[in-house]
Amino acid sequence: MENVIEMKHPLIQHKISRLRDKNTGTNEFRALVEEIAMLMGYEALSDLPLHEIEVETPIEKCKTPVIEGRKFAVVPILRAGLGMVSGILALVPNAKVGHIGLYRDEETHEPHEYYCKLPSPIEERLIVVTDPMLATGGSAVAAVDFIKKHGGRKIKFMAIIAAPEGIKRLHEAHPDVQLYVGHIDRELNEAAYICPGLGDAGDRIFGTK
Ligand code: PRP
Ligand code: URA
User: Fold this and answer.
1) Is 200 labeled as catalytic in the residue annotation?
2) Which terminus of the chain has a smaller tally of CB atoms within 10 A, N or C?
């Protein structure tokens, strides 16, 4: 699929392997999610809008480009997407942050919304949605539906691990959304967990069960 970019960088692949290990504890897991988000962000933000400002170097005045802070927002899907925000903010410290609260019903696997707030105005911003896991794609589609309903237009989605089923569902619902994934895994199991995956990302980031 032309709008799916799978990260091949060895640093990202190495860190994902550490995430997968069930013996990796909360502290390291959290740090790895942040680092992977930063490395993926380097790629996902390669077309961030710039504008020129004037700066005086020790030699002379010059015009030089800086990031349009007001033209960007990062929007994590709660909870697990929160773990990726600091990695993006390390790259763009003045970015605005929205929040989309969704949880998956354990039986139906469909997402339920419990909190949503986006920075305003949203229309002109590049919006990067973060969630470590793209499983059935239900949460991703609901998050993008919400952002579009509120006027967001240029949307990218960053997932550390994705299942083919989730990629297909997101692409069918929102073919305009550019997707960045750290690794595309084999499949979902009957409980809609990604195989081999890394387990429950939210629980592993926040140390809950
Ligand atoms: C997880 C994950 C995604 C969602 C992916 O969240 O962080 O948001 O599941 O599954 P999907 O593609 O099938 O929708 P969860 O609902 O477990 O909530 P949590 O982050 O609060 O633990
Ligand atoms: N959510 C997770 O945290 N992990 C999965 O494998 C699927 C959904």
Assistant:
1) yes
2) C
